[in-house]
Amino acid sequence: MTELNGNQTGYGLPRLGEPAPDFEAVTTQGTLRLSDFKGSWLILFSHPADFTPVCTTEFVTFTEIYPELKKRNVQLLGLSIDSVYSHIGWIRNIEEKLGVKVPFPIIADLNKEVATKYGMIMPGESKTETSRCVFFIDPDGKLRAMIYYPLTTGRNMQEILRVVDALQTTDKHQVATPANWKPGDKVIVPAPNTASMAEQRVNDKSLEVIDWYLSKKVL
After folding, report:
1. Rounded Cα gap, residues 60 and 95, in angstroms
2. Which domains does the chain have, with CATH numbers?
3. Which residue, 46, 90, 136, 159, has fewest beta-carbon neighbours within 10 Å?
4. If we measure between CA atoms, which residue out of 169, 117, 160 comes closest to residue 11?
């Protein structure tokens, strides 16, 4: 099969730290390109199929966090390999049955072009549906994080918000975030890379120094 992103199977994953694969696609809000989102963060996510129960709960909860994402300069873009007519019918059904109006566009990827570029199809799980993938793309179009879930497991929206907060915090302050970090927690200061800097670090009273390589601070 055609080589994609260095993977000979044709189902390769894009690479973190590199430009996100470009695309032009039909959506429920017209034709969109990756470049249309330049200058803002983008969360591109896939769902297995329209009119399915887990996906419906996810679209409701994606809609719930949409205002918080907008506060963080983040746009949402959904995708499945259903038609645009199926997408329109489904989001109208969600509004009718659940009272939730889906505000973000959904790609109708019938030819699987975008899904293939992003490695959204896992043949061992399904050859006809996209897995539950989440891609975090920064304002420069660079892929910064990816999360994959199986068909049976709905996503945790608070974790998606947490990842956005962590990425934006590390970019702004040039720090790292520890396990289970959330906004307001201490962050990790980059480790020193020379012996003399390590010596200075252990005597730095402005930080919480556990050891020369592990230090935290409050922003």
Report:
1. 9
2. 24-154 (3.40.30.10), 174-219 (3.30.1020.10)
3. 159
4. 117
Tokens representing 10? 């044709």
Helix (H) or strand (E) holding 157: helix 157-173
Question: What is the spatial distance between Cα 195 and Cα 205, in angstroms, rounded to a whole number?
Answer: 18
For residue range 151-199, list pLDDT tens digits in order. Answer: 999 999 999 999 999 999 999 999 999 999 999 999 999 999 999 999 9
- Which residues are marked as active site? 55
> Please, are residues 28 and 85 in contact by the beta-carbon 8 Å criterion?
no
Q: Strand, coil or helix: what is 184?
A: coil
Which 3 state secondary structure label does DSSP give 63? helix
φ/ψ (deg, to 5) at 19: -55, 135
